Amino acid sequence: MIETKIKSNPPLLDQYEDLLRRPHNFCTTQCDDRQNGMVIGECELPLIDLGGLTSHHAGERQACVERIARASSEWGFFQVVNHGISSELLWEMRKEQVKVFDTPFERKASCGLLNESYRWGTPTAISPKQFSWSEAFHIPLTKISEEACYGEFGSLREVMEKFAVAMSKLARLLAGVLVENLGHSKGFFKEICNESTCYLRLNHYPVCPIASDIFGLVPHTDSDFLTILCQDQVGGLQLMKDSKWVYVKPNQDALIVNIGDLFQAWSNDVYKSVEHKVMANGKTGRYSIAYFLCPSYDSLIGSCKEPSVYRKFTFGEYRKQVQEDVKKTGHKVGLPRFLQ
Would you say the pTM of this structure is higher than 0.90? Predict the structure, then answer.
């Protein structure tokens, strides 16, 4: 045990064992049931070739749009290929990401790297079931070009800039398709989504030397419009399908896209923000990079049609409510707080 602690980067085992020693009476039975559901099997997410969106044949483009919309409604998740982001750029980004996370913990936690956005474990957890065995950097797009954010990792800056531009372009393309599918102008996102609140998150799930049922990332939905995920081949992502947890089979040639809470609210529940989680791995570490398409904090999230399932709210109001719920109960409540 001592040897494991010494090698741990970051010291996740120390934080987890501290939680085990605390009284944790705030996690309700409902919370336990939701988080500990049995995994019923492996699934392959709907795989969509985005080449259809640039087809000169209207029928091919419409068929691609319909596949994206159907997956967003039935699964809340799908995979995309021919997405316009080169395999070389993805490989370079992963190489730089690994280099950053291999840095000693003390340096990551104190050197101000990537806008001082380093996070690890779950400081807000009040029980082991709310603990995430992971570390991450959360970088607003507005900070990605700032040289001061990179310190000794100068080679990361150029790659990160290219990666952010490519992911942003893809996110807006897909969001535009989903908006148009419901009869609205794709210019909607140009008006409310900007770099001040969109961000990248570099994730690392270190090898977990303890129980096999430890969360790498606790069950949650995303509080944005759209998330694009680039992951490695280790696996661990699970999502809720038909009230059961299913394991997502990794696909090295595809990016994963999932609908966030704001798109579910705006679409009046046509598109689904689905609960998902990552399970820790006892043998191999896992890496992923997520791009989050978010509006400005004062943007009003209404419905694309009436009667609306949810009352109007701003993104800032939504984030504040989520933070308050996590602080009080240890878990996110999300959209049910904003029902009419």
Answer: yes
